[in-house]
Each structure stands twice: as C-alpha cells, then as structure tokens.
Design a protein that fits this description.
CATH superfamily of the largest domain: Tetrapyrrole methylase, N-terminal domain
Mean pLDDT: 90
Radius of gyration: 19 Å
Order of helices and strands: EHEEHHEHEHEHEHEHEEE
Number of helices: 8
Helix content: 25-40%
Low-confidence stretches: none
Strand content: 15-25%
CATH topology of the largest domain: Cobalt-precorrin-4 Transmethylase, domain 1
Shape: elongated
Structural class: alpha/beta
Number of strands: 11
C-alpha cells in the first residue's frame, strides 16, 4: 500500500488555533516531516527516532516553529519518527531546485514503503509555504498528497486587533514584502504585507508615503508577540513573522 503526504497547516503561532483535522492527521501519521530553514543546522534529509535524539537534533526540533506549535496538541510526536528537510532561505534557483527535488524524492521513498507522512508548516500551506514545493513534486512523481488548511496569519492578526479585513466591496491584497511594495501601495482596498523582517526599513519608508490606517503584529500568537499601531515605533529590523495591515480610512 502506498502512503500519503499531508501538508498540515499549524496556524500562526497559538497552539489552540490548530484545527481538529490537523491534530488528527498528525496523530495518525507514521512520520513527521519538518522544514529546517536555519542554514547552520541544515543537512541532507534525515529520518530519526524522536525519543532518542542528540543535542544537534534537539536544536533542529527547537528551531521549527510549526513543531513547537503542534507538540502541546500531539505529545505523541515525541515517540514518532522525525524526518528533517532542509529548506534554507536562499535565492539561488538552481540550488533551491536541487534541495526541493532531493527532499521530495526522499519523502517519495517513505510513501513507497507505505508510510503516511505529515509535513508541518506554520500558518496555511497554500499561503507562501515551503510545503508547496514538495507537494507539487510528490504529485508529479505519482504519489498522493493532500493539503490540510491552517488559519492564515493575516486572519489571526485581524482577529486579535479586533478589525475586519474586508467589508462590502473592499478588495484584499496579500503581498510578500520582499517584492514591489511601492507598486502594491497603489492598489485599492486592504493590503496585507507579509514577512517584512530585514526589509522593514524600506517597507516603512514606502508606507509612510500613504495616509492609510496602519497595523502591525510581530510573532502573532507566540510568547514574544508585539503589536504596533504607530509606524514610527516599528524597529528597522523585525522578525521573519512580521505582518502589516493597511486599511483605507472609512
């Protein structure tokens, strides 16, 4: 019997926001795949028993936000097989392609053995997720793969701020902060800028040219969550999990 790959969205950071279906799928899967983005920790794909890890493996697990979100809901993960997949943040397209293909083939080998594998990813797997690179390749290789939705970070941020994202005829634009912020600001409706991080200084300069209502949350749902409603108080460099909402004034 062939196994199935599940891309499981763990939500934005609060363990209580994981869906019941996500928890069930993680609990039922044989292998937990986690992305490793830290280049100091990245290795070739590796399968190991979670209950017999060394210090290096513990560091890898502790560096995975999606794993830490999931663990309180599925403590059984401590006794499951863990599969680490290097997913470094680099812009070398050839190297990224090699990494994604190597990871997908390694997962395909597990599926061929009849193992069900869940790939944990923060937020929702359909929104700027590293999981999608593997998902498409697994399907192309002829193996089954399913996406299990998680609550997107921008929905969680809006809820925490007590604001709506769109009403009536408003449009919603979700924009990666690394690309074309200045052009995106010309769009009408609500604008969500994701993953500003190290680009924050430039993003701030562009946003200051507008007169729209500004909201920002850093590390939504995590212990070090921060909220900003004054752009002048935002540091020039913030965490990778920084999200900005711009709304047109009523």
């Amino acid at each position: 019997m062939i196994g199935t790959l599940y891309g499981v969205g763990t939500g934005p950071g609060d363990s209580e926001l994981m869906t019941l279906k996500a928890v069930r799928i993680v609990r039922e899967c044989d292998v937990i795949a986690i992305p490793v983005s830290n280049t100091d920790l990245s290795t070739e794909p590796e399968l190991f028993e979670n209950n017999s890890v060394d210090d290096n493996k513990k560091e890898i697990l502790n560096s995975c936000v999606a794993y830490k979100i999931t663990l309180p809901n599925v403590p059984e993960m401590e006794h499951k097989k863990i599969f680490t997949l290097p997913m470094p943040m680099c812009k070398d397209k050839a190297e990224l392609k090699r990494i994604h293909e190597t990871g997908a083939q390694a997962i395909a080998n597990l599926l061929k053995e009849g193992k069900n594998v869940c790939f944990l990813t923060i937020g929702d797997p359909t929104v700027y997720s590293t999981y999608l690179y593997v998902h498409k390749r697994i399907l192309k290789l002829g193996y089954p793969a399913e996406i299990i939705n998680g609550i997107p970070s921008f929905c969680s941020v809006a809820a925490k701020l007590g604001i709506g994202l769109v009403e009536n005829k408003n449009a919603l634009h979700v924009i990666p902060s690394s690309y074309g912020v200045e052009e995106a600001l010309k769009l009408s409706g609500t604008k969500v800028f994701m993953k500003a991080g190290k680009k924050m200084a430039k993003v701030k300069d562009d946003i200051k040219k507008t007169d729209e209502k500004f909201y920002m949350m850093e590390n939504c749902g995590m212990s070090d969550e921060k909220i900003y409603t004054d752009i002048n108080q935002v540091p020039d460099e913030t965490s990778y999990f920084s999200l900005i909402i711009l709304k047109e004034e009523d």
